[in-house]
Amino acid sequence: MIAMNTVEKKISQMNDTLFHKVTFSKNINVRERNGFWYVDGRVYFQNKTERVHKSTNKKATKSEKRYIEKNKETILWELSNLKRDLDIERKGIENENAIPLFGDFSHMAIDLKKHKVQIETYNGYKEKCKRYIQPYFKDFRLDKITSFHIEEWQNWVVESFSVTKSIKDIRSVLSIIIKSAKKKKYISENPLLDTDMLKFESIDDTSLSYSDSEMKLILTENDNFIKDSASKPMEFSRTQLKNLIYLSYGSGMRSGEMIALCWRDIDFKNKTINIDKTMRNARVKTTKTQTGVRVIDMTEESYNALKSQKVLCIDLDSESVFLTQYKNPYKDVSEISKGSWKTYLKYCNVKYKRFYNLRHTFATQMLQNGFNIVSLSGHLGHSKVTTTMNRYVDNNFYKGKIGGKSIINDTFN
User: Fold this and answer.
1) CB burial class (10 A; 0-12, 13-18, 19+) of residue 257?
2) Which of 107, 143, 101 minimizes the C-alpha distance to 126?
3) CATH fold for the domain made of 102-194
4) Range(s) for CATH 1.10.443.10 in the chain?
5) DSSP states of 23-84 as a string?
6) Residue 273 · residue 296 · CB < 8 Å
7) Which fold has domain 207-392?
8) Rounded to whole angstroms, how far apart are CA atoms 289 and 383?
9) What is the CA radius of gyration of the chain?
10) How far is CA 297 from CA 271, 320, 369, in A?
11) Chain-centre distance of CA 319, in angstroms?
């Protein structure tokens, strides 16, 4: 195998997040001189212009010329002094000290979290770093990253991936790496502290709930949806979807908690549900928080849904309450939300919202019906009442009429 020369290696490692800002003259010439190919053209970067007329160190053969013609812009950029100056800004002078590049250090920093967080959280860190952070910062030496670079990076993430509020989660992964670098004394200050968090308009909480008219369709079109089934497995899955909908809307359980339910968790006599686990990525885990372990009362909707599910699965020997159309336990809630749920909403002509939003609809409905918010918080498995307040109570919730009422003798709803 023929080894790549320096220019080829640099091209293969091109940082697209910077390269897309570079422009070139319309004509880039490739000429032979002293048995080697030379490139001649202009590079424009950050309001600076440079004419580059340098050897590519490639012999003047036809095959080498074809390669250069195909990659002449990247070659011109790699040979430019503008690129050299940028590398010094990002990396410092070569061998200046032992401070590593971000790309090398970030893997180690994320790996330190492997046994400190749940495996799904750890995998999420790695994925966010790989997709949103590494492409931009991998060639920076740790001590060369400034708050200005971070602000540029934030804008790049938002513009390139159309993310908004999730930038906060992505930024938290960068924070893990920067803080680890500070602990190792590779940097003396954390540049994130001087960087403003991007702000986006808050999503109206009411948009997270299904409206009364939407819920009416969702709750009444089930039987027609089941009748239109084309096969027995489809009829099974659609009937079960109806039960899932009524259980979610009637209990406010998290989707992962529902698909993790076993029949031993259901007490039909006392009309209670024991919640002590959740399902995610094919793994049964403890609930999201310690307060998530709870026993909740069944509403009429959730009781009837579970009774119907019991009849549906009467001939099946399974501990799990809910099964896929292949009669296997669910591995992840995405199997519902990305499959039959989308199909059903389209059938109902209802705009798509996540299946999880039925939980939000339940909470909103309970508050509107006067259910005590402290009791609701415990029912939902929230660790703090403020979590329930922040998610389900809008600014107009408590704007009731008090004129002419007595604090001692009247009830305020």
Assistant:
1) buried
2) 107
3) DNA polymerase; domain 1 (1.10.150)
4) 207-392
5) EE-S--EEEEETTEEEEEEEEEETTEEEEEEEEEEEES-HHHHHHHHHTHHHHHHHHSHHHH
6) yes
7) hpI Integrase; Chain A (1.10.443)
8) 7
9) 30
10) 6, 20, 17
11) 32
Instruction: Give the integer Cα–Cα distance in Å for 249 and 279.
Output: 19
| Tokens coding 276 | 């002590």
What is the sign of the dihedral through the CA atoms of 378, 384, 390 and 393?
positive
Provide the pLDDT confidence category of residue 369 given band limits of 50, 70 and 90: confident
pLDDT in tens, 161-202: 877 768 888 999 999 999 999 998 889 899 999 888 777 554
Q: What are 248-271's pLDDT values in tens digits?
A: 999 999 999 999 999 999 999 999
How crowded is residue 374: how many other Cβ atoms within 10 Å of its Cβ? 10
Question: Which among 259, 358, 272, 268 is positioned nearest to 307, based on CA atoms?
Answer: 268
Q: Which pTM was predicted?
A: 0.58
Those residues with Cβ within 8 angstroms of residue 179's Cβ, 6 or more apart along the chain or in another chain = 190
Q: What six digits make up the tokens of 410?
A: 């009247």
Contact call for residues 231 and 383 (beta carbons, < 8 A): no
Other CB atoms within 10 A of residue 155 CB: 12
Residue identified by tokens 């039959």 is 340
Measure the CA–CA gap between 182 and 166, rounded to whole angstroms: 25
Question: Which amino acid is present at 58?
Answer: K
Q: What counts of helices (H) and strands (E) characterise the chain?
A: 20, 9
